[in-house]
## 1
Amino acid sequence: MHIGVIGSGALGLYYGAMLQRAGHRVSFLLRSDYDAISSQGLQVHSINGDFELSRVEGYQSADRIGHVDLILIGLKTFANQHLVELVQPLAGPDTAILTLQNGLGNEELLAETFPAEKILGGVAFLCSNRGEPGHVHHLGEGRIRLGEFCGGLSPRSQQLAEIFSQAGVPCEAVDDLRKIRWEKLIWNIPFNGLTALTDKNVTELLSHPPTRALVRDIMAEVVAAANAQQLTSPINGGPFIERMIQMTEPMLGYSPSMMVDRRKNRPLELEAIYAIPLKMAAKAGVGMPRTEMLYSLLALGEKDPDRK
Amino acid sequence: MHIGVIGSGALGLYYGAMLQRAGHRVSFLLRSDYDAISSQGLQVHSINGDFELSRVEGYQSADRIGHVDLILIGLKTFANQHLVELVQPLAGPDTAILTLQNGLGNEELLAETFPAEKILGGVAFLCSNRGEPGHVHHLGEGRIRLGEFCGGLSPRSQQLAEIFSQAGVPCEAVDDLRKIRWEKLIWNIPFNGLTALTDKNVTELLSHPPTRALVRDIMAEVVAAANAQQLTSPINGGPFIERMIQMTEPMLGYSPSMMVDRRKNRPLELEAIYAIPLKMAAKAGVGMPRTEMLYSLLALGEKDPDRK
């Protein structure tokens, strides 16, 4: 299978590398890492064992990649104004477009230009960071859940899940993409924002009882908003929240990408992770006072004149 | 009148200086400013005109001050474990004890040791900062409202208001101390905490519509909590909040003391401004989700191992 990776950050590089190692042809659209990867290849430092791809097919322009079988999108959502122009050159008549971007609104944006039935979305539970140019660090987790934008459990989504799984990336196809997107937000909305706002990592948040309680309160707001979206089945808030906390406990000292981005004074993915979910909750009549407060405070920080 | 100032920070130094300039004898308990003030006096840089007190009666120990007519307390509440021992040596049989400290719980703490009828409390609307040792900057406002801990409009409270007013500090005696304390919290709870948490000043908060709305939402929480405390008359939330916002608009670029303290990695007055009001609101059955969230996040920051 020929796979094009758009948005080769920590997520795109890691999954692309895993797929290439499994024998697929992978074309990476690269920006800052282009020189390093072209000359030295890609080094993956993984909790499951390090490996190196000495030859990587890297491009500086999407136009030169040509049509692929699968477009894997890991672009940061704050760059979504470029999404369509980056995807367009890779999208042929039989291309599947899979966005693993954070938050809500990404499939909808693609569907404004591409046929809805070409589009899939997925959520990645991946702890990874970029290191030096040409290096990516896989710190934990890694599994993906994906589904059709049009809904239902298609043969194609199951085939893609198989491809990932065979490449060492546990992957499950589901029938309700919207549900898994909201489920992911139950983690992202508290942890991404609170760590970015306070510059304290997930362990520090969970070790301080008042912020541990706050994480749960925010998660409960997201569950309530999710369950007002007519999902195929409701999320069982109590046990789900408990599971999210349990899953986070072992991620000792983990700094989510939003915390890293804020620390490096980079823009944050506020639209996809906060603004659109808040709009959808409000439309369904669900109040999210803590989430709204968090969004307001994060957005205030974006107004820093020194921000790149 | 002989006045002893306990807690000679920006507030204690400014009011003490105004009273001394008006002809009162003022004894300052000093710590970090002792050397500078002993050798060079106290410089007041005020929007109403700079002035200098070349001779200042400064002490390094409260024991050496002796009994005074009025004890003026400006101690930061995070040092309240020392409050009684600092006040004790100044308190004679006819001494009035006036705390202008922030938040709730200060009069109650004094009343555990001193007779309740000796105690008054007040709220200061003062924009001031300390500069170099021996310098205090009066940036705006300055008025005081004070009242008896035991309630009612006493001749003593009116006399004290007169003394401040004659010294150039607009001052009003009121019959309901608890009400003015809660009214002050309507400003302090949003502005102190949000500026400390985000490192953005009051003007930045008000210029960003979502945080401007957040300030109002938090103010509304405090009004609801206040009006559940059986005040002599309820606070009229809408107009009061509007007035607080209008009052803050001209304070261009003002950094409240809590923001300055956080920036300097000093402890914050979280107990008096957040913990006690939250407890009293909870006791009255009033929820304050945004205030509670703000408190949790501020308290998380206090856990910094580098904090002094």
## 2
Amino acid sequence: MTASGAKITLAHGNGGRFMRELVRNLFAKHFANADLDISADAACLGSVAGTILVTTDGFIVDPLEFPGGDIGSLAVHGTVNDLAVSGATPRWLTLSFLIEEGFDMDCLDRIAASAGAAARACGVSIVAGDTKVVPRGQGGGLYLTASGIGRREAGSVLGMSLIKPGDCLLVNGPVGDHGTAVLLARHEFGLQGDLRSDSASILPYAQAALEISGLRFMRDPTRGGIATVANEISLETGLRIVLDEAMLPVRDQVRGICDMLGYDPLYLACEGRVVAIVAETDAAAMLAAWRRLPGGELAALVGHVETGRPCVVLRTELGGERLLGELEDDPLPRIC
Amino acid sequence: MTASGAKITLAHGNGGRFMRELVRNLFAKHFANADLDISADAACLGSVAGTILVTTDGFIVDPLEFPGGDIGSLAVHGTVNDLAVSGATPRWLTLSFLIEEGFDMDCLDRIAASAGAAARACGVSIVAGDTKVVPRGQGGGLYLTASGIGRREAGSVLGMSLIKPGDCLLVNGPVGDHGTAVLLARHEFGLQGDLRSDSASILPYAQAALEISGLRFMRDPTRGGIATVANEISLETGLRIVLDEAMLPVRDQVRGICDMLGYDPLYLACEGRVVAIVAETDAAAMLAAWRRLPGGELAALVGHVETGRPCVVLRTELGGERLLGELEDDPLPRIC
């Protein structure tokens, strides 16, 4: 629907004819669903039974397209995942586009198509959007902000306050893939590889986890990685978290690149992973359930909650202990 | 809570300690309400009776602070207004911050305080947020994206499809104040003035209008101004909209600046105005109701819906007619 080589102009964000045509010919085409009305100021979701949950996230990943995903699918997955780890079923999304003047229309078309496809695959409807265009030099190409609304059944309430000493920490797959794949896609270090981002909906894992009575809490380890989730839990509960290096799934390629560049995969963003805290008696059942899911073969029990001084400790393969402190610098800006 | 002169760093967006402290010490302080839990992935709104509406908008105004408002209050008002014109009572907001590295912490504090105050004044709770920091040169200081959720009672359904020939077009006050005030605040033309943005919640006007049985449709004339709203109505209904220049409230200062710089106030953004289409028999009652509201003294009946070729026409004070076409160029980027 777009002329090849066409670029976004300031007039695509002015509320007038060009914006109307962009919304109709590009966004509405890719996002089409029964709840989307591009001529309305607000989308009507009807009446909703159950408890409603809402979340929001900005997406600034660079490059916008990378092996395994792009900013469009990432925005959908990230928002779906925040609802899923909260025990909700994601239903509706809003998607706000902040575009820099001169941005390539074909790329925008691909990213909108990718967001639309990801939403359909996750069973959510993109019901409202917005387009703003900033003058050249005042943006980073394209930034997205997504908000998500979901509903939660009674009985699915989770929280860090339920976490007890002895609980187990599980993750549904290898950590650090997204951060490393985006890093490679920047071609900054002359490094190459076939690594793909793990960007995906974790809803099937969350739903399987919700079947387990001993489930306490879930979180998706995005910015700051699994070490940051562990720190958040430790800070909030006042408990000690011990991660077991030998059990932590990290792909060889991720480990190799991190060793070379001085990154720690435990602090790198994942976008299709979920960390769950579960009672020790239920850990084996949850691990088995996750490993049965497609892509869950490498799910692992990677740590425990203990009493003692609140901190996060990595028990190394050699039997030593290394403190995993709270992240302070930003090793990889624009990673998600 | 912030050291004077402190600046935003990339680490304020990395998910680690600095981001946690920023969220706790700055955002949570200004947005505090019972539904905000800064340690959760999604906010729980409980169960909600009635029909749910959702909207989203990005805000890129430059300068960030201007007479009559700032990007924080503007984001709240803009989102509240999109719900209000849809017949809903706004209840919850999410607010996503996209901050450029090096941004002034004191300014961020003022803007967050302003957003929090505006939300309280509008009776809405900011329940979820996000902070992303982009490297210096890849942003425009600060961009916000807000999403809003509201509920609508049965019977408050409005829409352009209800509009009929003979209906009247009302506006609740002078047009073009916001666009002109922001323009002046840029100090680009050596112009000065005491004009203030009209940025405000139009919820009281929407609620008064919903009491009028002949109400068909409402829209807030933001980007593209009242001429763009009239064009949207004409395009969607296939009807002719006639605006009456003599009745259109435009402040002398706005008219003077527009004459000087070649802008048309009918295309300039308003952020505290609402256009309503109402049956002719109810127009006087709605006008009276709006004029009784504080700040509504200059509300006016400014046009009519007619049969005939779909277009928007301005009947001039001299008795001529001027076509008000769809906006094509962008006269004022980053106006909202």
